[in-house]
């Protein structure tokens, strides 16, 4: 969206709706037919979207509630809200937080940062997380948890197993998400794949953090950061996201960065490049960045039929999102 949600709290309802519509139009112009709002904090956001009625949206929208709003509202209100979202919005799940971020050294690490005597901050342990998750998982809501450091990822996986009572088949069917999963050992990657947990990765992180990773983690742990090739090889469920507005919203820029380790498109060049373990083959990168059920994006060239070096030359011609009712 073009304006952060908290900045719209005191804006008149019609202006909120107009700004949200402009945000969806920006996403569509970038080539997106679907976006995910990861952490809605107030119901007015959904009310503003509902004011569009049934007329087509520039891009369809999946919404995850911030855990605070979900816990205040309860599953009964959430269920009622979910049935009244219209054809272009899907109220899908609940997002939790397990730790902070890599650059400010607040993500939860198993070993201290190389440049600080700190292992970051773990916001919630496995048992507490499982207790919070259980009522929403039982009601059929999809669960997502922000976890960047390896200690946080381990706690989230433990929490997921507890929340689903150790039933790995049920856990895999529910496919709870980890948002980011930025620092992972091969052992954690194997466990993610075995449990059927999905990881939403951000291709731009490995590029924009390229200079920061060795400083934060030290030379012996750089291979643990953004290990997308390892996760893919292990058979983990992956999907690509932008983390906009922290990173660029343009999916073709993200695709180029995921395949080539950088983008050469004017205006999106970066000083660093992602290492080999943070890159995927074009076919795999395209697979986790697209979903034909969401609609169609018409491009100047087919990303699957050109060389990786040409990805940055592709232009968005138009988009045609599909409603959730189609």
Q: Calculate the terminal CA-CA distance, rounded to whole Å.
A: 24 Å
Structural class label: alpha/beta
- The CATH fourth-level homologous superfamily of the largest domain: Metal-dependent hydrolases
Portion of residues within helices: 25-40%
Q: Helix and strand string, N-terminal first? A: HEHEHEHEHHEHEHHHEHHEE
Q: Mean pLDDT score, rounded? A: 94
* Shape descriptor: globular
Number of helices: 12
Overview of this protein structure:
It is built from 12 helices and 9 strands. It has about 325 residues and is of the alpha/beta class. The protein has 2 domains: about 1-90 and about 290-325, no CATH class; about 100-285, Metal-dependent hydrolases (TIM Barrel, Alpha-Beta Barrel), CATH 3.20.20.140. The strands form 2 sheets. It has a 7-stranded parallel beta sheet with strand order 1-2-3-4-5-6-7. Helix 3 links the parallel strand 2 (about 60-65) and strand 3. The protein is globular. The mean pLDDT is about 95.
Helices and strands in order, then pairings?
Layout: H1 13-30, E1 34-40, H2 44-50, E2 60-66, H3 67-82, E3 89-97, H4 126-138, E4 142-147, H5 150-163, H6 168-174, E5 177-180, H7 186-195, E6 198-201, H8 203-208, H9 212-217, H10 228-234, E7 237-240, H11 251-260, H12 282-289, E8 295-299, E9 316-321
Parallel strand pairs: 1-2, 2-3, 3-4, 4-5, 5-6, 6-7
Antiparallel strand pairs: 8-9
């Amino acid at each position: 969206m073009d304006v952060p949600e908290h900045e719209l709290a005191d804006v008149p309802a019609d202006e909120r709706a107009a700004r949200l519509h402009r945000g969806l139009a920006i996403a569509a112009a970038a080539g997106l037919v679907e976006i995910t709002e990861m952490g809605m904090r107030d119901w007015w956001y959904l009310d503003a979207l509902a004011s569009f009625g049934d007329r087509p949206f520039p891009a369809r929208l999946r919404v995850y509630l911030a855990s605070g709003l979900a816990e205040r509202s309860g599953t009964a209100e959430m269920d009622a809200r979910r049935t009244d979202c219209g054809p272009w919005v899907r109220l899908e799940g609940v997002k939790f937080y397990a730790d902070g971020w890599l650059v400010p050294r607040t993500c939860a690490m198993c070993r201290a940062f190389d440049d600080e005597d700190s292992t970051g901050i773990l916001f919630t342990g496995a048992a507490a997380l499982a207790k919070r998750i259980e009522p929403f998982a039982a009601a059929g809501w999809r669960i997502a948890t922000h976890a960047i450091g390896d200690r946080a990822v381990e706690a989230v996986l433990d929490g997921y197993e507890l929340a689903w009572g150790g039933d790995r088949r049920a856990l895999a069917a529910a496919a709870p998400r980890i948002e980011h999963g930025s620092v992972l050992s091969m052992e954690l990657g194997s466990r993610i794949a075995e449990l059927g947990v999905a990881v939403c990765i951000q291709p731009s992180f490995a590029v924009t953090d390229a200079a920061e990773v060795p400083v934060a983690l030290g030379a012996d742990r750089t291979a643990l950061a953004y290990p997308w090739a390892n996760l893919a090889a292990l058979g983990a469920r992956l999907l690509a996201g932008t983390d906009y507005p922290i990173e660029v919203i343009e999916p073709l820029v993200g695709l180029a960065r995921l395949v080539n380790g950088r983008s050469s498109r004017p205006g999106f060049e970066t000083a660093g490049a992602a290492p080999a373990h943070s890159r995927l083959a074009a076919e795999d990168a395209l697979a986790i960045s697209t979903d034909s059920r969401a609609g169609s994006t018409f491009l100047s060239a087919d990303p699957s039929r050109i060389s990786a070096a040409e990805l940055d030359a592709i232009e968005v011609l138009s988009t045609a999102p599909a409603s959730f009712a189609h």
